[in-house]
């Protein structure tokens, strides 16, 4: 099985590759070069595999999961606010506003009057 078969599949069944420039120290680059050579892979492939592994581990990290739930709730709250705004703008019937009670109605509710 080739390493490229591990690429994530996106809509349409084709993998989309994007370039990412990363600044690293000379020492880290030298170590990366040696690891790639020992594994008979390119430096790019080693970086991609390391990132995939890190992402998979992050998906199981309780702190990341908790933060994801917080972010998801924020997104849902913002989306609901925007849905409500759109509904208010484009609703066929104007939203019913609560009418304040009249003075006469208020007097009727006061006991002993």
From TrEMBL:
Annotated GO biological process: regulation of DNA-templated transcription
Top-level taxon in the UniProt lineage: Bacteria
InterPro entries: Arc_rbn_hlx_hlx, Ribbon_hlx_hlx
Region of interest (Disordered), residue spans: 92-113
Comp. bias intervals (Basic and acidic residues): 104-113
Name the record gives this protein: Ribbon-helix-helix protein, CopG family
């Amino acid at each position: 099985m080739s390493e490229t078969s591990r690429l994530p599949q996106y809509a349409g069944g084709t993998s989309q590759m994007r370039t990412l420039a990363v600044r690293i120290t000379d020492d880290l680059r030298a170590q990366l070069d040696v690891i790639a050579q020992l594994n008979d892979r390119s430096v790019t492939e080693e970086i991609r595999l390391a990132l995939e592994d890190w992402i998979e581990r992050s998906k199981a990290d309780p702190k990341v999961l908790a933060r994801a739930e917080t972010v998801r709730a924020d997104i849902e709250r913002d989306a609901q606010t925007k849905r409500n705004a759109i509904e208010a703008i484009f609703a066929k019937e104007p939203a019913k506003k609560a009418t304040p009670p009249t003075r006469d109605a208020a007097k009727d509710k006061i006991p002993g009057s």
